[in-house]
Design a protein that fits this description.
α1 packs across α3 (about 35-50) and α5 (about 125-130) crosses α7. The protein has one domain: Fumarylacetoacetase-like, C-terminal domain (Fumarylacetoacetate hydrolase, domain 2), CATH 3.90.850.10. Helix content is about 25%, strand content about 30%. With about 270 residues, the protein is α+β, with helices and mostly antiparallel strands. A hairpin with a 5-residue loop joins β12 and β13. It has seven helices and 13 strands. Strands 1, 2, 3, 5, 6, 7, 10 and 11 form an eight-stranded mixed sheet that branches. A five-stranded mixed sheet has the order 4-13-12-8-9, with no helix packed on it.
């Protein structure tokens, strides 16, 4: 495991990479022997730097919730990151692409909590009880870490993603809020279009069989670090489409059928 000074140095490098939009070498190659515990510690140091710069925590995101992605990366559970106030956008917004380094999009459901969730032992039913409403959202993910190492040609690992705040960058919120038991959340579907052309489709059952299970997993995982989810926080439960690359001028529309749509443009 890394010592505290090395963890702080890694967090500072990631903080500066986001500010300058210049990717750094994969952390696990810069700091050999880096563990998942190190990665979450670096993430906490990174968030501390953002809070010191004036940001505010508004919730969490869960990533790598599909079996296909877990198999590809060689893990058996999701990861998580922290959502900050400057990451949120309303549907219909023009989003400045210069804020990001290598943005991609994922289609998700967002949970708004009306009661706290504290693990261990949180179940899917506990999540449904604690949720005020669920609504459509698009997550903008980004990479402050090189996707492919220029020397070894190796790709990023789970520790690289986790230390980079699980690739968190932005959330565009829209559509129609619904009660968590007003419909079977497993069957919420979406069509993601870029510039009028369908790029991806999916249903929310792709997120751990039910997106509320993702929130339960998060609450129980946070308990291992002495943390919990507070009333009023939001949780991005995980993508049920593949990530789509973005370019300046692209207009995206995620059509959730009866739950409405999320639309924005990169400028």
């Amino acid at each position: 495991m890394l010592d505290d000074a090395t963890r702080r140095a890694a967090a500072r490098a990631l903080f500066d990479a986001e500010r300058t939009r210049v990717q750094i070498r994969q952390p696990h190659r810069q700091w050999p022997g880096m563990t998942l515990e190190d990665a979450y510690a670096i993430q906490r140091e990174l968030i501390a730097l953002k809070l010191a710069a004036g940001r505010r925590v508004v919730g969490r995101k869960v990533g790598l919730t599909s079996k296909a992605m877990q198999t590809q990366i060689g893990i058996d559970e999701p990861d998580f990151g922290v959502l900050l106030d400057d990451m949120l956008y309303d549907t219909g917004t023009d989003v400045p692409i210069d804020r990001f380094t290598e943005p991609r999009l994922e289609v998700e459901l967002l949970f708004v909590l009306g009661a706290p969730l504290k693990g261990p032992g949180v179940t899917m039913l506990d999540v449904l009880d604690a949720t005020r409403w669920v609504q459509p959202a698009i997550e903008i993910i980004d990479a402050r870490v090189q996707r492919v190492d220029p020397e070894s040609k190796g790709t990023r690992t789970i520790v690289d993603s986790v230390s980079d705040n699980a690739a968190n960058a932005g959330v565009v919120i829209g559509g129609r809020p619904v009660g968590p038991r007003d419909l079977d959340l497993r069957w919420v579907g979406a069509l993601l279009a870029r510039n009028g052309q369908i790029e991806e489709t999916g249903v929310a059952a792709g997120v751990l069989d039910h997106p509320a299970r993702s929130v339960a997993w998060l609450a129980n995982k946070l308990a291992q670090y002495g943390e919990s989810l507070a009333a009023g926080e939001i949780v991005m439960s995980g993508s049920f489409t593949r990530a789509v690359f973005c370019h300046r001028g692209d207009t995206f529309n995620a059509d959730y059928g009866p739950l409405g749509a999320v639309t924005f443009r990169f400028v």
